[in-house]
Design a protein that fits this description.
By secondary structure, the protein is of the alpha+beta class. It has 5 helices and 12 strands. Strand 1 and strand 2 form a beta hairpin. The two termini are about 20 Å apart.
Length: about 250
């Protein structure tokens, strides 16, 4: 897992901004703020990382992020790995768990998402959990329960008063089975328009809470001259290696 981005939702406008980037470099975790941290006067700082101009290093995963991963001692941990389609792999890295789960907590407005990684065919692969299931009607929820792993889904633009780049997930009928996370929409919209996106059901979790019910896998190639997650909000603010966090 090369990099994770931290998205923050403005509590007034409900817009998402990419405010930070987390990487692992050899034996250290590194956190930096990005230009998105300057997008709203209502955003202050994350955890105890008060200075937006510094790089923060730690041998252990920062508490802000480790608290977003289910503890291995919990009885539901095996189910948690299964919901994230990681149950066949041992010694899960915290970065991978954050990438698949999204790191969402009910107590704040933060989410975590990964930079897409390339497969052996040179395609980019991005996993995400279907959002907005609690807003779907009973027919849509019943259709979700009939999906199987490997089923093809479709990404479609949707006119939405709250998101100019809204992308819905649909079956072939079509039946809406959720939304692409809003903080991914702008870049995936560009890819979808110019190259297309293949979307699959990676895991359907009948026994999981709604936020873990449907895990999807997007596979795509990039349009010429376009780099995903490279816009202004993703550019780091730190200029020097200035801070070390224990």
């Amino acid at each position: 897992m090369n990099a994770l981005y931290i998205a923050w939702q403005d509590p007034q406008t409900r817009a998402w901004h990419t405010v930070g980037k987390l990487t692992k470099e050899q034996d250290f975790y590194c956190f930096v703020y990005t230009q998105g941290a300057l997008s709203s006067s209502r955003f202050n700082y994350l955890g105890r990382m008060f200075d937006r101009s510094k790089r923060y290093y730690s041998r252990e995963l920062f508490p802000l992020f480790s608290n977003r991963i289910l503890n291995k001692s919990r009885s539901e941990y095996p189910d948690y790995l299964r919901w994230l389609a990681l149950d066949g792999e041992s010694n899960q890295e915290p970065m991978q768990l954050l990438a698949r789960s999204g790191g969402k907590r009910a107590t704040d407005e933060l989410c975590v998402f990964p930079h897409p990684e390339q497969n052996a065919q040179g395609e980019y692969v991005l996993y995400f959990l279907s959002h907005g299931l609690r807003y779907l009607d009973q027919t849509a929820l019943q259709r979700i329960e009939t999906l199987t792993e490997g089923d093809c889904l479709t990404l479609r633009h949707e006119k939405n008063d709250h998101d100019d780049f809204a992308l819905v997930l649909e079956t072939h009928e079509p039946v809406k089975v959720g939304y692409c996370p809003r903080y991914l929409n702008r870049d995936l919209w560009e890819v979808l328009d110019k190259k297309g996106v293949k979307l699959f059901v990676e895991r359907l979790n009948h026994d999981a809470p709604l936020q873990f019910r449907l895990l999807c896998k997007a596979v795509f190639t990039l349009p010429a001259g376009f780099e995903v997650f490279s816009g202004g909000e993703y550019q780091v603010l730190a200029k020097e290696l200035q801070a070390m966090a224990a």
